[in-house]
Structure formats: structure tokens, C-alpha cells
Design a protein that fits this description.
29% helix; Alpha-D-Glucose-1,6-Bisphosphate, Chain A, domain 4; 153 residues; single chain; 7-stranded antiparallel sheet; alpha+beta; SRPBCC family protein
Length: 153
Amino acid sequence: MNTSTDRIEKQILLRAPRSRVWRALADAEQFGAWFGVNLTGKRFVQGQYVQGHITYPGYEHLVMDVLVERVEPERHLSWRWHPAAIDITIDYTPEPTTLVEFDLTEVDGGTLLRVVESGFDQLPVGRRAEAFRINDDGWGQQMGNLERHVGQG
């Protein structure tokens, strides 16, 4: 069990080749299909912002906005964002961001994907616990979404 308040860590063994998992992460259309967002652009490019409307029912009014930090094909993808930025009346831009990292490792039987989101302790105290809870639950759901997506071919 993860007892840290600063980082969320999830991992899953995906029964798919690393190249397939990478496409699901790095191709904006595929990412959007399992994550629930309609992203602009075709792929994640280091140093660039990627945005898109959330497509999950009830959250369509929200925009996901990330700054791509690092791209190492078939190994690592990371970005920064404002976690749990779900109140459209709040300007989250002055707040620190968290770092989301996807690390892929080829293993017997498929690809081990490790997702780490860190930096929650830097968030304003009034938002910290709720943002952590929302994203901890969210990453658990997203791992299942990704597993179903890569299993479809």
C-alpha cells in the first residue's frame, strides 16, 4: 500500500508488446480513446503543450492541459499538469504542477507499465488531499482502461 502523500505509483503488466503500449501512450488519438480526452495534435512532443476536451460523461466542459516534459520512444513519457483541476471557476495556473511519468519495461509475457505522479506536497494545502485522492482513484481506473485498449489490437 502506498502511504506517501507526495506520489501515486501504479503498475500493471500489459499482455502486449512494448511498441503497442507505446503507441497507446504516445499517439494522441489512441491516448484519447482510453484516457477519455479529445487531444489536439497527433502525438506528444517534448517541450510542447497538449490540450483537449475531456470526453468522460459529466466532465466534457473540462480541458486537459499538459506540458510534455520528456519523450523517450518506447521507454518513457512524462508531462506536467494541474491535478484534479475540475472547478472551472478556479484559475489553477499559479499553482505548482505535478509530474506524471510513464515507464515501459519489456518483460516475459508483455510490457510492465509503471505510472508515477509526484509533487502533491507542493500543492496548496486546501487542495492537496482531495487532488491526491481523485488522481489515485483515477490512475487505478485508467490502468484498466489502458489494459482493455491495448488488448483490442
